Amino acid sequence: MSKPIAAMASLVRPMVEEHCEDLDVTWFTSTEEALEIAPHTEIGWFDMYDKEKMAQVLSTATNLKWLNSIYAGVEHFPLDQLKQQGTIVTNGAGLNSSPIAEFVVMGMLAAAKRSDKLMTLQQQQEWPEQAPGTTELADGKALIIGYGGIGQQVAKKLSGFEMKVTAVRRTASDDPAGLGTEVIGTDDWRGRIGEFDWVIVSAPATSETRKLLGKDEITAMKSSAWLINVARGSLVDQDALVTALNDKTIGGAVLDVTEPEPLPKGDPLWTAENCLITMHMSGVAQTRMFQRAASRFVENLKRYRNGEDMIAVADLDRGY
Asked: Is 179 helix (H, G, I), strand (E, B) or coil?
């Protein structure tokens, strides 16, 4: 009996090879090698930084039964094709929740204490009497839009700051994280957005969530509120955000994601008032991402062989 054909990037080879003895694996090092093996592959792990090239590879993977990915978002995959093929897609949901949540807290503290202005003062060798940022997180109110793995980790970390946290899920429920967070439904948050000092976006990117925060939602925010986006740039109406920032109708924004990426030089978002931009770093600003991903892959490989339910199976209809 022939071994199932698998294809994976050589980067993960040292972490998973010993568990793949019953697979015929190609450890590719280039897009060209991935394209060559993709049409014959049953099990694939085709993650690439260039999403267009990755989609090109996947479009040829017509015999793929299981696609594994380190990415939590799957909007850049050919979902219709994968669904038609009956391909199981396991994503990276939850793998990087904690470091991304740390990035959220970093951004909030940077905004609250205006660390950007503090660094400028240091460079200018100035010693002012007044602090550039005096906001306190304690007793503040935060709205987390998207209460999956990332949102729950954000709530967990904010609990240490004695913040009042409200989270948005598809339907209102008790807090699945057991933190005592108020959990409201998708029909309830817009009418309340003006209550919050911090609006944190961690929802998946789908056709339903495109420009989830548009002009009306941004206009309804508190004039002192900050928007934190660690989801995808497509969830926020960027033109409306730039206008709000420059007109100072909101306090500011911390953006780890933009649309497009990379953000082009000269884009007005770069120079918008009170806007702190990190270059989609929250998911890679950690040391154990590939180890966690490899461990999950090995466990899922065992379950795949045994026909058992797998971890983090994406819903291709919902797109996450």
From this structure: coil
Whether residue 261 sits in one domain with residue 113 = yes
255 and 151 both lie in a single domain: yes
Domain count, the chain: 2
Burial class (CB in 10 A: 0-12, 13-18, 19+), 31: middle
Tell whether 183 and 219 lie within a shared domain. yes
Reading the chain (320 residues) residue by residue, the pLDDT tens digits are 689 999 999 999 999 999 999 999 999 999 999 999 999 999 999 999 899 999 999 999 999 999 999 998 888 899 999 999 999 999 999 999 999 999 999 999 999 999 999 999 999 999 999 999 999 999 999 999 999 999 999 999 999 999 999 999 999 999 999 999 999 999 999 999 999 999 999 999 999 999 999 999 999 999 999 999 999 999 999 999 999 999 999 999 999 999 999 999 999 999 999 999 999 999 888 888 889 999 999 999 999 999 999 999 999 988 88
Provide the residue range defining the domain that includes 41.
Answer: 5-94+287-306
State which H helix or E strand residue 48 sits in.
none
* DSSP count for the chain of H helices, then E strands: 10, 12
In-domain check, residue 166: yes
